Automatic annotation (TrEMBL):
Domain Isopropylmalate dehydrogenase-like: 4-352
Obligatory cofactor(s): Mn(2+); Mg(2+)
Pathway the protein acts in: Amino-acid biosynthesis; L-leucine biosynthesis; L-leucine from 3-methyl-2-oxobutanoate: step 3/4
Binding of substrate, residues: 96, 106, 134, 223
Native source organism of the sequence: Robertmurraya siralis
Superkingdom, natural source: Bacteria
Cofactor note as given: Binds 1 Mg(2+) or Mn(2+) ion per subunit.
Quaternary context: Homodimer.
Gene Ontology biological process terms, A to Z: L-leucine biosynthetic process
Functional summary from the UniProt entry: Catalyzes the oxidation of 3-carboxy-2-hydroxy-4-methylpentanoate (3-isopropylmalate) to 3-carboxy-4-methyl-2-oxopentanoate. The product decarboxylates to 4-methyl-2 oxopentanoate.
Magnesium found in the keyword field: yes
Protein name: 3-isopropylmalate dehydrogenase
Binding residues for NAD(+): 76-89, 281-293
Amino acid sequence: MKKRIAVLPGDGIGKEVTRGAVEILRAVGERFGHQFSYSYGQIGGGSVDELGTPLPDETIELCKGSDAVLLGAVGGPKWDRLPVHLRPEKGLLKIRKELGLYANLRPTLYYSSLADSSPLKREVIEEVDLLMVRELTGGLYFGKPSERMKQDGRDVVVDTLFYQKSEMTRVIKLAFELAKNRKSRVTSVDKANVLESSRLWREVAEEVAKDYPEVIVEHMLVDNAAMQMVRNPKQFDVVVTENMFGDILSDEASVLTGSLGMLPSASISESGPYLYEPIHGSAPDIEGQNIANPLATILSVAMMLRLSFGLEEEAKAVEAAVNEVLKSGFRTKDIASVGTKLVTTTKMVEEVKATI
Ligand code: ATP
Ligand code: MG
């Protein structure tokens, strides 16, 4: 199989972890006989310094002409005082918009060897394997008006929650599609007892569910979902929800099983390419020290193999290698504990590569 991959390392440890992840892609290509090619693009603070913009047009074109995009991370204290349009994060928002990425997928997976770094008891998180699907294009974050104003001389404020029904349908469908290859359970999260948008959301979920008789669907109010997530996260398979609820719940879900350095993500569009990135940021505090955990980005590559290229066996090989390396006791600093073997970023990558 031939595939073109756009690589956007970005800032801070973004460079180190994408370098590692590309090595893993190369190893997969060799082992399974695929031809992956890599083209590099600029994004973020480095791009502001060199080109005067956090996202040059060349990068947008590069991504649009590729089969998948691998992103590291952007930002850092160096660029925090720039005017808003020059902030590195603007580059990220713009590339999401340019590529039409409408859903963000974050798997949370239990690793028995990392159970000690979870804030929850082992019994609670054992076997957790859930996938958060968050709508990215609508809802409160983009509704207009969003402003402060005067009403009868009083200060008031308004934010608008706006959704097209079609935006709900496509992300809920995606969740059902993904559930088919998992445990065939979808939990649709809303606040249908209070919000009109949530009542429509629930209707759409019921409508979509009719096309997937093999998938069990459950509706849950967001406040209850937030509680269930820490009380009994094992009950969830695929969780789908609108933008703001998803923002909050996906951060909650991400800490269940331990470290930030372990968590991958994928962002999905209607016609591709999809974008893959670790959920962590550029971690300026550990930049350039060769201690960053590359596994979140390596696991993002596994998601790329599965979702963009349909290479399930290859994706499993990467995930199994990560598991194997953890079981053998190798740890970067962020996940190290007593009795484990502390290794650098590059050594961790080598171990995963050798295992593949
Ligand atoms: P952003 O706003 O870009 O999300 P942030 O300020 O939330 O960034 P991160 O850059 O993700 O934060 O870093 C948070 C903490 O986690 C830092 O102390 C950082 O060193 C650590 N960290 C993040 N990613 C990793 C990683 N891959 N390996 C090790 N430590 C990490
Ligand atoms: Mg953050």
